[in-house]
Amino acid sequence: MTAPAPQDNPRIERLIAMAERLIVALESDIAELQNGRTTMLRTNDPEIQSLSALYGREAQGFDPRLAQSAPPTLRQRFVIITAKFREVLQMHARMIARVRNASEGIVRAIAGEVERMNAPARTYGPRLDAAPKSSGAMVFNKVV
């Protein structure tokens, strides 16, 4: 293997620095989600969103051979931060899914209760006067 070109090490360090900043933002989001606060998520910040897009472009164009040919200390830092980033990203995705499922469940429960309360009284007769209509769960989303 050949030694990395001088411009490759700063690229690896730039990826490490971006991943570290994204990890801090994701960990902040995880803490907010665990405390039930969804309004103060750092990943909604335009700066973090642009950093995520930049990281995605950098990582997509990254050749793994650059990391293999990097100095051992830099390579070890890169491997550790990449593993940490994946772990935090997976935890963040799980927390977002939990919050989404909980809020959708609340909306469904409210819509079901409203629909039940607004349903016409049914008789034991052979036919219904009018077919029941769905109240539409998303109409009541503002209630939550």
Describe this structure in words.
The chain is an all-alpha fold and 144 residues long. The chain has a domain at 8-94. Helix content is 65%, strand content 0%. It contains four helices and no strands. The protein has helices at 8-34, 46-60, 64-68, 72-118. The radius of gyration is 25 Å and the shape is elongated. The mean pLDDT is 81.
* Low-confidence blocks of residues: none
N-end to C-end Cα span:
60 Å
Radius of gyration: 25 Å
Helical content band: 55-70%
Give me the number of helical elements: 4
Mean pLDDT: 81
Shape: elongated
What's the total count of β strands?
Answer: 0
What are the secondary-structure elements, in order, as H or E? HHHH
The portion of residues forming beta strands comes to under 5%
Report on the biggest sheet: none
Structural class: mainly alpha
Set down the secondary structure blueprint.
Elements: H1 8-34, H2 46-60, H3 64-68, H4 72-118
Keywords, separated by commas or semicolons:
single chain; mainly alpha; 144 residues
Brief synopsis:
The protein is mostly helical and 144 residues long. It has helices at residues 8-34, 46-60, 64-68, 72-118. The protein has a domain at 8-94.
